[in-house]
Amino acid sequence: MKRRLFLQGIGGAALAAPYLPSLAPRAVRAQDNPFPQRVVFYFTHNGCLLDNYRMTDRTGALDLSGLSTFEQLAGLESKMLQIRGLAMFPRGTSVMLGGEKVYFDPHDQGTASKLTAAPNDPDNKWALGRSFDHVIAELVNPGADKTPLVYSPTGAGFQDVKTVVSYKVAGDGKAFTPENSPTKIYSSLTGLFTDGSMASPSSQADGQVLSGKSVLDVTRDDLLALQARNMSAADKRRLEAWAELLVETERVIVPGQCNAEVAEALGVTDAEVSAAGGSSGGTRGGGGGFGGNAEVQMTTGMAMLQKLAALTMICDANRVVLQHNQSFITFNFDGIDAPADHHGISHRTGSAAVGGDTYDPEYYEPFIKQIDSWYGKKYAQLVNLLESIPEGDGVSLLDNTATIWLPELGDGEQHNNDDLPITIAGSLGGYLKTGEVVDASPPSNSGGSGFGGFSGFGSGGTPLNKFYVALAQGLGATEFNEFGMADTNDADAGITDPGPLSEILA
């Protein structure tokens, strides 16, 4: 019998529990929100033109009109949040590690430290800490697979520290390569499809089933309450054996919306996945599931991968998602005719060089604006997709998610990680503020500082670590109170200011 059917109705959890003669049965308590919360990171390299990304005002009502990067999201401000004053640590030219001052390339830091809040290894340059996506997925993902969904339209180029942001293992020099094959992601979901007969919850337990809870999740509160009560030794043994059995055999109770009909409504079918290029057999670390064509990868491929990410969340197969947009893309498509790859253009030189005779911002900045707008459209594509998927009465999948645009740097020329440009769509189930610009910087913060001439690079700002703690708690990891190896440039000092970023909480 399917476990979804087995657990229908409020009595399902009680039926699954062992009979304890010394105690009266207990009922399952209802949840305020039967749907899970998720976090999605939309990561881009090389910074952006800040004047096109965010308002001049550091606080107040969010207004995206006039910002070319967010042209397609103007009007959705009530469901969005921008944060000012956050800074990545450790970074800059004065990182203390092992009692010595160490210098790391700003791109090496911007990727390795961004999601790990840890310094680079001085020998191999890889991050010395695990990234937030892996750490939090282990805490909040249902079922046995505790790995986040990390995907990218491009399959090659994730073997260098400048291109890697997701770290399953700290400091071992082995990159966690994003998945680029739509076929693989789709195949992992079709086995979860139900017949769709539980499209809306009719009881408290149904609501929990629809939210993707496992048997142990559904009964955890009752289990803890039972264990705290006086009972016979025989009943204690029965309860312990039952809990052990659930741990060993636990599988996700698949939500009722996870079915072929919903997938087809999203445009995800065998034929569509094949048409997007997934049939060519892309693999982790391979050349991509789209024939190695950058235009197909970044347009058709990205659109399909975003749909599959949405379906993954509908099926509650993963609550932590990372879209990693590759660094060294040359934009010669979608109306952009860039003279060099994005990295070189961000330097205003057309190459990896910083400064020099080729420095020409008047020539390169119009291309940066085009590329920023292009990434803005693809972020809007993802946000609008999640907004279009209903989850309950008047609530969308976006509302239950924090969809975060997290750039590598502030400005690509300055290479700064102060006053980072961060945008969130969705409130994480009402946990985060929306419709606002929030300034989280400390009163003494003087704003962003640049890499040019090393002047002041690495000063000021509230640690990004606190942002991750807030996200973790919003996802349900309420005991999660600190993240990373350091929240200052003194990596040896560790975490000096634990706790969440309270300024962004609703």
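Next protein, fold it too.
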Amino acid sequence: MDSKYTELATRIGMGDSERIPRLFSMIANDKEAQVLLALPADAPTLAAKFDLPREEIERMIHNLFVKGLVFPSFKTDPPTYRMGRDIIQFHDATILWPEAPRKFLDLWQEWTEMEWPDMARAFEKAGARPAMRIIPVGITLKAQGQVLSFEDVAEIIQDARELAVTKCTCRLAARKCDKMLEACIQVNNAASYAVARGTGRKLTREEALEICRKAEEEGLIHTTFNSRSVDHIICNCCGCCCQFLPEHIKHGIRVVDPSRFRAQVDPDACTGCETCLDRCYFQAVSMNDESAVVDQEKCMGCGVCAVTCPEEAIAMIEVRPPDHVP
């Protein structure tokens, strides 16, 4: 492997990876790799450094932008370009490369299955707070307790300046289920970025709410970055393709935080139809002789079980304080 690609992987903390340098080599040719290693920089600086016409450098930068390899900052004039900050940004941006060949997506899935679990365990062992958190279903949810704006899907969408939708990068690569593919709601600057790249389409608030409603019906779980500021993305995750949920479900690795809520079944209203058992990814719901019961330790507070309960026998109750969300 050319050392340039190992250096690119090192810049996002993945220099020891077997597969990340290979992914860089598949998406960036030799000249593009040299330009990436010269970042951060603006177009005139790069043109002078490589003794190329500015127009040629700008075409190259635009191509790298579409591929998901460079990100512009308009705080300077002309804009300054940088590489992705970390492996997550590299993953999410490059998988949506419009011309990505299947072997590129397959290699990403191979990395997810072969290298990501050890990384996730290392993060957990180091005591790092999970990067993602669950947002309880918000469009049909009638929570018992205080629902704050940063954990209410509808309010997040209503407060957004700009919205767009992209394909789910995890399902695009993994192809383990037939859940809706166009499902990642991009918020504010992330929406502008997706539309500018041509990897997303702009949404009205009503369209974004409808996507979330359909996602809930399909049993997908709303997640976002683990912060009170929801200013980037609302993912709608399945339990098989997602980069984060399977690590929790299959291996017990704490890579996603629960919401502040927990499902609670009203035994008098429950008819024992078992719909909620099929809906719960975390095996937190079981049946006793008369009704469904929720395991308090396993429940992640997503509310997916409540959405399709025919008797509306499941409520979401507040079990963690607001400062649970950092």
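About the second fold: The chain has 15 helices and 14 strands.
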